[in-house]
TrEMBL record:
InterPro entries: WD40/YVTN_repeat-like_dom_sf, WD40_PAC1, WD40_repeat_CS, WD40_repeat_dom_sf, WD40_rpt. It comes from the Eukaryota. It holds the Pfam family WD40. This is WD40 repeat-like protein. Keywords: Repeat, WD repeat. WD repeats lie at residues 19-53, 54-95, 108-142, 143-177, 216-257, 258-287.
């Protein structure tokens, strides 16, 4: 049953105001929504009204994520930046940009905060997954290997890996332990350095030693959404091929495929409490 409808009466009634991203706060009291009008609205669900509006992005907001303690929220936008906002004093905390010398400035499609709150990862239209230090706002790693835009990123529950999904029809698992082991504050933000140890198929990793250790192959079209189960056992993905794939997170082997949506599966998440999977699709259905 429908429990609540949140409407901003002050928003412009002219044209469609698509809401591209939604995210609950960890305590379930707030819902963050990112829309085409470049604003992030934080809704108090019990009071059914807006608590805070974060403004500053120059283009629409594609992705939102709360830190586990609920203090910070990170947003990714078509304006080529990710931003960290502070829920405690309702301020802009950091602007995260791609500042490598040879970087192609490109829209940010997907953001996530690591479980310990130290890192922000973002997928981008330029095929790169970038990682920033939350404390300093410094770029600490660029993960290169996808052959088309990255549309979805997710940290593993232990914080040691990132799963990314791309328009190249694959998912990749990136081992980011090398940057966790080093003092992030001591890492200079720098441009691409060719790593020796280029992986099979000409795969590279990151300049600071992070590597792509697994490829998930099986989707027949763009991978648009990825999630990792809370026990770290499963990776799930949704695709333009209309299917949902379940993968073994340790081996990258596909275990099963769910079909039924009549259009692209553009959003996917696993319940923290149990064995429930939710999907959203271009066929106007959530399942």
């Amino acid at each position: 049953m429908k429990t609540c409808v949140l409407v901003d009466e002050s928003a412009s009634k002219i044209g469609d105001l698509y809401i591209r991203s939604v995210c609950f706060s960890p305590d379930g009291k707030f819902l963050a929504t990112g829309a085409e009008d470049k604003q992030i609205r934080i809704w108090d669900i019990a009071k059914k009204r807006i608590r805070t509006v974060f403004e500053g992005h120059q283009q629409e907001i594609y992705s939102l994520d709360f830190s586990r303690d609920g203090r910070l929220i990170v947003s990714g936008s078509g304006d080529k930046t990710a931003r960290i906002w502070d829920m405690t004093d309702s301020s802009l905390n950091k602007i995260l940009t791609a500042n490598e010398p040879d970087a192609v400035q490109a829209g940010v499609t997907s953001v996530c905060i690591s479980p310990d709150g130290r890192l922000v990862a973002a997928g981008s239209l330029d095929t790169v997954v970038r990682i920033w230090d939350v404390q300093t706002g410094q770029l600490v790693e660029c993960l290169k290997g996808h052959r088309d835009s990255v549309y979805s990123v997710a940290f593993t529950p232990d914080g040691e890996g990132i799963v990314s999904g791309s328009l190249d029809k694959t998912l990749k698992y990136w081992d980011v332990r090398p940057i966790l082991r080093r003092d992030l504050a001591a890492l200079p933000a720098q441009g691409a350095v060719e790593k020796n140890g280029v992986k099979e198929g000409g795969e590279k990793g990151g300049e600071k030693g992070s590597q792509c250790t697994m490829n998930f192959n099986g989707h027949k079209d763009y991978v648009l959404s990825v999630a990792v189960s809370h026990d770290g056992q499963w990776v799930v993905s949704g695709s333009k091929d209309r299917s949902v794939h379940f993968w073994d997170a340790k081996t990258a082997q596909m275990q099963c495929m769910l079909q039924g949506h009549k259009n692209s599966v553009i959003s996917i998440d696993l319940s923290p409490a149990g064995s429930i999977l939710a999907t959203g699709s271009g066929d106007w259905q959530a399942r």
